[in-house]
Design goal:
This protein is 3% helix and 42% strand. It is mainly beta and 349 residues long. The strands form 4 sheets. The protein has a 17-stranded mixed beta sheet that branches.
C-alpha cells in the first residue's frame, strides 16, 4: 500500500540518524532477531528481521536474538573485510547453535544468555559483562583450531542433558549409552576460559537403565579453565556420570579450587564412578583443594599424574593407575601407582 512503511524500512531509516544520537545524549538500540535458515551466514541482511546485520557502530547498539529450536548460525563476518563484531547483548536459544569461523571475533558487552550450543573453529568469543553466562540446563561449548572463548557467570548446570529410550522397550534391560559433550577444547592454543564458575551441577537422574555419560574433554593441547569451581554435584543415579577426559601432555582441565565432589544418590556404583577423571598421554591434573568425594573414579594412564594433597575422604571410590601414572593424595601413604581397587578406599591401606 502506498505510503505504508514496513518495520524493516523504518529501522533502516533510523541507522543514518545515528550521527544525531550524540547530540541527543543517548544511543540508539536495535533488537535484531535471526529469521534465516538453519545453516545460514550471519553476514546476510535478509537473515535478520530488521534487514540489518547486527554489529555496534558508534552510538548504534544491537541486541542480538537467535531463537531456540535448532537454528544453526555461522558467524562469518559483519561485511566484507570486517571479521570483528561487538554487540550490546546476545541471546542464544535452547538447542540452537552459534558457530564462529576461523579468524573471527565476537564480543558481547553486557548481558549474554547462552542457553544453546556455542562452537568455534579458530574464532574468538568473549562475554564477561554483567549477566553473561551459561544459562538453563542444556548449554554446551565445543572449540578447536586455536579458538579462544571466555564467558562469565558463576553457575553451570547440565541437568537437562541426557536421553532415554522408551522405558517399556526391551523388558527394562540396558537400552542405550549416550556420551553428550558438555565442554570440549581441542588443539594447541585452544582455550575455554570459564574461570568465573564457582559451581557445576550435573545432579540429574535419568532413571531407567540407560547410561548417560556426560563429558568435559581437553585434547591435543587444549585447555579448559575451571579454576574457580569449588563444588561439583554429580549425577544421582548409579548409571549416570560426568567425566573429565584429558589426553595429551599439554592438555589441561584446571580445577585447582575444587573442594568437594558429591552425588546425592545412594546405592552403589557398578562402573567407574558418577564422577570420572580419565587422564592419558602423560597429562597432569592439580586437585589442590579437593578434600572429599563419593562415587568417584580416577583412571590414570601413560604416566599421567593427579596431585591432591588434601584428598583424604573417599567413599565408594575407584582407582585404576597404569603405565607409571601417579596419584599423590592425603593419608599416611599418600603416593600410589599402578593400583586398582573398588569401594570405600582407606587412605591408610
Amino acid at each position: 500500500m502506498a505510503g505504508k512503511k514496513t518495520r524493516r524500512a523504518s529501522l533502516l531509516a533510523l541507522v543514518p540518524l545515528a550521527s544525531l544520537c550524540p547530540s541527543l545524549g543517548r544511543a540508539l538500540e536495535i533488537n535484531d532477531t535471526w529469521i534465516g535458515p538453519s545453516g545460514g551466514n550471519y553476514s546476510v541482511p535478509t537473515n535478520w528481521d530488521t534487514g540489518v546485520v547486527p554489529g555496534n557502530t558508534g552510538p548504534v547498539l544491537f541486541n542480538v536474538i537467535i531463537p531456540g529450536g535448532g537454528k544453526y548460525v555461522y558467524f562469518d563476518k559483519v561485511k566484507d573485510g570486517v571479521l570483528d563484531c561487538t554487540v550490546k547483548t546476545f541471546s542464544l536459544g535452547d538447542a540452537s547453535t552459534f558457530h564462529l569461523l576461523p579468524g573471527t571475533t565476537y564480543t558481547v558487552q553486557e548481558q549474554a544468555d547462552l542457553y544453546g550450543i556455542l562452537n568455534s573453529d579458530g574464532g574468538k568469543f568473549t562475554a564477561v559483562g554483567p549477566g553473561a553466562g551459561l544459562k538453563g540446563e542444556r548449554a554446551r561449548i565445543s572449540i578447536w583450531n586455536g579458538a579462544v572463548v571466555t564467558i562469565g557467570g558463576d553457575t553451570y548446570s547440565s541437568k537437562g542433558i541426557w536421553q532415554s529410550w522408551d522405558p517399556d522397550w526391551h523388558d527394562g534391560d540396558q537400552q542405550g549409552t549416550w556420551y553428550p559433550t558438555l565442554m570440549a577444547a581441542d588443539g594447541a592454543g585452544t582455550v575455554l576460559d570459564l574461570s568465573k564458575l564457582v559451581k557445576i551441577d550435573a545432579g540429574f537422574s535419568s532413571g531407567g537403565n540407560d547410561l548417560n555419560l556426560q563429558r568435559i574433554t581437553a585434547s591435543n593441547g587444549g585447555v579448559i579453565d575451571l579454576s574457580g569451581v569449588q563444588t561439583l554435584t554429580a549425577p544421582a543415579a548409579d548409571r549416570d556420570q560426568i567425566g573429565f577426559v584429558v589426553s595429551g601432555a599439554d592438555s589441561r582441565v584446571k580445577l585447582d579450587k575444587l573442594q568437594t565432589i558429591a552425588s546425592a544418590g545412594g546405592g552403589t556404583t557398578w562402573f567407574s564412578g558418577r564422577t570420572l577423571f580419565h587422564l592419558s598421554g602423560g597429562t597432569k591434573l592439580d586437585l589442590t583443594a579437593l578434600t572429599s568425594s563419593n562415587y568417584t573414579g580416577l583412571v590414570l594412564l601413560d604416566g599421567s599424574e593427579v596431585t591432591a594433597p588434601a584428598y583424604a575422604t573417599m567413599a565408594d571410590t575407584y582407582f585404576n593407575l597404569s603405565g607409571g601414572s601417579k596419584l599423590t593424595a592425603g593419608g599416611a601413604n599418600g603416593v600410589f601407582s599402578s593400583l586398582a581397587t573398588w569401594n570405600s578406599w582407606d587412605p591408610d591401606w
